[in-house]
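Researcher: Go.
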Amino acid sequence: MSTRTLPTGTVTFLFTDVEGSTRLLQEHGAAYADLLAEHRRVLRDAFAAHSGVEVDTQGDAFFVAFSRAADALATADEARRALAEGPIRVRMGIHTGEPVVTDEGYVGLDVHRAARIAAAAHGGQIVLSETTQQLVDDASIRDLGEHRLKDLVRAERLYQLGDGEFPPLRALDATNLPIASSALVGRESELAELVAALSNGARLVTVTGPGGTGKTRLALQVAAELVGQLRDGVFWVPLGGISDPGLLRAEVAQSVGAPDDLVGFLRGKELLLLLDNFEHLLDAAPDIVQFVASSSALRVLATSRAPLRVSGEREFRLEPLPVSDASALFVERARAVGREFAPDVTVESICRRLDGLPLAIELAAARTRLLGPEALLDRLDSALPLLTGGVRDAPERQRTLRATIEWSYDLLDSASQELFARLAVFAGSFPLAAAEDVCEADFDVVASLVDSSLLKPTGADRFLMLATIREYALERVVETEAADLRRRHARFFSRLAEQAYESRFDAEAEWSARIELDHDDFRAALDWFATNDPDRALELAGALGWYWLSRGLLEEGCTRLLEALAASGSGGHARARALTALGALTARRGDAESGQEQLEEGIELWRELGDRAELASALDSLGWPLIYDAGDEAGALAAFEEAREIRRELGDASGVTRALVGVCQVLVALGDVDRAEPLSRDLLEHAGDDLRTEHFGYHFLADCALIRGDTVQAETRYRQSLQAALPLGDVIETSFEVQGVAMAAAGNGDNERGLRLAASVEALWESLGISISVAFWDALLERYIGPAREELGEKADSIWAEGRALPFDDAVQLAATPSKVPPPLPGLDHPPPP
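Model: Structure:
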């Protein structure tokens, strides 16, 4: 198409597409061809009536350009009205921008934006961008709010033309995919092929290729395209920050919110796992086969510089960008730094020199702020022959990428070069405060590295150095400085862990989330201390114990603490804290005897040290396994009461409340609901922002109601306790709430729901390798679940089996949803009190 026929300057794009074309073909057969032809005639008449220029047509979709936004809206509205009575429903998207025009047509993100807006709409719906809305004056335009489209960039406000009611836009919903700083350019065919593969039976696909080919960015886009198509979601698992293949399962579990039994959690799930940067964890590849085998609906998409070499793998080799797409990428990234020019011979030569590698192109384009394309090409011509070294068996493009990074590094001033190298000490993303403390970073210098595309902002005051760039940066660190940097890094995260430890009761959820963000760096700090300062390793592990317990990272926590205790000869405070944490973790894993011994050893040390605040916390930790595992209510009550008295003497009001939690649990276990109920209400009254105390307050009120036979009140309270417990990430506490709802549901006459929920908890505990038996709780289960099984008769076993097969995450959702079965009449159908 000649560029002279296309509108230039400010242009408004209209994209149209038929909704459900496959279904229409099946319904109308050969007649669909006539319907489609009539649809095309109607649209083309509308285009012509309002000066629209047809840019492209593919199948039943149109791409049209207008010089005026108002013409585009008039066209869309006229076409919709003309097609309103027929079976074909067309979705339309409108966006206004300033695209670059080439001999091949329009180039730029505005084209992609308009297409994405159309894809988010439903049949009969016209959606427009904010830039278009600002150019027209139409009272029928409705604000649809902000939405993230599937190009992963920031959310933007969208509008609808007309008053029609439609389902929510097809935008990104619940997923942990990160927000990208820019849209994907090119890769249309690769994207379509990967989406089709994962949608049509491929279970494990690995995108391979050398560093810098854009494996991660493409994979993220593939994942975004599948959001909304898979029942249980799409989850991104970045692996660049871990070095131990044994931590793969824990990393995946953290990302998907699974308990320790990851395979059990994945069983029956319909979801996509995006395992990003797998090349250094190839020894863990057999684990992926086990993941895939756990569910016929599970897909795994991995990025790696090398194939995983496991059964069922489909390798997708990602090649460099073709010149046209590489040039478009270069122009777009140059525009982002304020340089406006069209693709030409010079730009194409630059892209060829960079072998079409997206990362290399982005680094080069960032320099157009200082150098024009001709100057850039000159520098590349003189630099690349000198900078293509490295090992001879490395792929040529990998050596070219190294040269590109080195060239970008050489353009930095000395302060930026020094900071660039130092920042490689971080294992994952890092906050600005950490860079300032560990690396003596200056904000302006950090900004210069961001401008040079050597550092990526990932959120509020956090940054990330890509794995391939970090690898190069590590080589630039002077050996003597590297040791000092690692020491400062370890000490910074040690101080942060101590700060979190001191605040763990006042702001558990906030500090737990903060540690999760930096968990890779805490691991790196532990590794460095383990080699260089075992006593500090013991201190750090002890400070992190509460986090591992809260997040359910029982295996990792026990392993780290056991190793630190074995390696360090330190006694006193560090040893007492580590033993307390280890005892709590060990008991939670199900080894109550060892856990109690470790806790009692820690308590003895705290008594010797005279640290009464820590002694109170350790006594609290001891009380729970005494109730749950030993059935020693008297011993547990003594531990909780001593902790409570110590905190009262110390003037620690919130600590007194926390110790009251244990006292309430003992009273409930003894069946003393008359004393337990008012104390539980006190817990709620004084909980404040403490979710854990709030959770226990509701839980004990639910227990009391259940003991009294008020199953309606019990179910409400257990659901309230469940909502408070979920943000804590404590799978065991969550499972007790599911059991509570199960008993209440059975008492309310919803026997099938009760059995399914109870069975799901049984399966969960078996999968975790734990066995929890609490006398009063077991008695309640028998009181409510036993009769439910009897009433269901022969159906009971099959329903129980369904519950055991129910993924625990689904069981939580089922428990959180109120029962649809009417509650029993008061005083008639409740099981009698014991």
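Model: The longest strand covers residues 11-18.
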